[in-house]
Structures are given as C-alpha cells and as structure tokens.
Amino acid sequence: MSQIKEEIISELEDLSPRTYAEVLDFIRFLKFRRRKAVPDTALASEPVLRKDWLRPEADEAWNDL
After folding, report:
1. CB-CB contact of 40 with 46 (8 Å)
2. Global model pTM greater than 0.70
C-alpha cells in the first residue's frame, strides 16, 4: 500500500464516525470532478481541431490510410 494511502487511512481512523459520511461525500465529489474534467477538455478543443479537420489538405492526408 502506498504511503499516502496509509496516511489517509490513519487520519480516517482518528476521525469521529459521525464524519465518515462527509469524508465519503468528498471522495465522491473528487471522483466526479475527475470524470467531468475529461469531457470538458475534449469539448473545449473541438473548435480548434475542427479548423484542421475541414481543410482539404487533411482529407488528402487521410485518403491513403
């Protein structure tokens, strides 16, 4: 187990059981934010890439593949 994971578990053991739900909520928030960041980045890059996709030179480059 990694050292950071061990530290997290150690800190969790020191918490009151009443705070477990809050910790779990925060972990789920972090996971949600990580999953959401990827599509947002892809959507942000699409208009920039579209300029190259719609060029005749791009079509020619893909013709032989």
Report:
1. no
2. no
